[in-house]
Amino acid sequence: MRKLALSSIVAATTLTLAGVSNAAVLFDAMTPSVGAGGAPNTGNSFMGQGLITPAFTTPGAGYSSISGLDIALVNNSGAALTLTGLRLNIWTYNGVSTSATVSDPQFTNPVAGNPAVVDFTLAAGGLALGNNTFSLVAAAGVTTAAPGTTGGINFTTPIPIDPNSTAIGFVFNWQGATDPAGTVFNTIPGLTTGIRGGAAAPAFAAGTPTGLAPNFGYNRNASGLTTGNLLISDGRQIGLNSSLYIRVYGDVIPEPTSLTLAAVAGAMVLRRKRKA
Q1: Which of these, 39, 84, 98, lies nearest to 235 by C-alpha position?
Q2: Nearest-angstrom CA–CA distance, 184 and 178
Q3: 177-227, pLDDT tens digit by residue?
Q4: Phi and psi at residue 118, in whole multiples of 5°?
Q5: Does residue 36 contact residue 72 with C-beta atoms inside 8 Å?
Q6: Can the peptide bond before residue 214 be classed as cis, meaning omega within 30 degrees of 0?
Q7: What residues are paired with 65 via a beta bridge?
Q8: How many CA atoms lie within 13 A of 207 on its CB side?
Q9: Least confident of 180-184, 196-200, 244-248, 272-276
Q10: What angle is formed at CA 202 by the lines to CA 196 and CA 207, rounded to 5 degrees?
Q11: Against a cut of 0.85, is the pTM above it?
């Protein structure tokens, strides 16, 4: 289990990513904004998304890791909530099943260290969420802003994925705390991840979900599973361009020239240290 921290729910401190990979937007269901009314939700506490990824055929054409995430938090619990603590559990998978058996797991080949755990530091007084409202966890703070190369949630240790995989999957579970210390986390029915879709839903700005075009889709735990995976029968869509309301950032495998430049730069640093 990875445990990660985030400085605030709206705007996170941008962290420098290690390594020579290049951060890029792997999937974007937020640009252009579909607004609060365009992100309804079913209220399920575990939500999943499969994404088609370019396999590593040549350098620059595959992803080695997931570096960040923008995501919508929805309160569809039926009442206003005041949270003293907030946690997001993230399970990542290197495969999405295409089995015709609907009772089979939707996601396959889990990455090591599942789940990644993001604990949010909330302002004094906690986080107040009105019923049927959503909050955006994004670096820009608004969905209309063009994405950069980092997300509202930035993984100091990127989540590794198989660069040869042609599809990856995520399962998200929000938990809230209401105790004075904000340390006792529980899954709250209706505290969940936003979705988008319908006749007016725009095309995805980057990437493609798994599922049949033009509706695509997402998963939610109608089956009652709370294990970090979902069933194929948990798949749903609400019309055109359906998906979770997320933006995913990945580290692209560098071009050979990038790797060469990185090696040269590293050699220059070593040479300077030796001279010093």
Answers
A1: 98
A2: 7
A3: 999 999 999 999 999 999 999 988 999 999 999 999 999 999 999 999 999
A4: -110, 115
A5: no
A6: yes
A7: 160, 251
A8: 30
A9: 272-276
A10: 80
A11: no
What's the N-to-C CA distance of the chain in angstroms? 41
Beta bridge partners, 243, equal 196
Of 43, 160, 50, give the one whose Cα is nearest residue 112.
160
How many C-beta atoms surround the C-beta of residue 211 within 10 A? 20
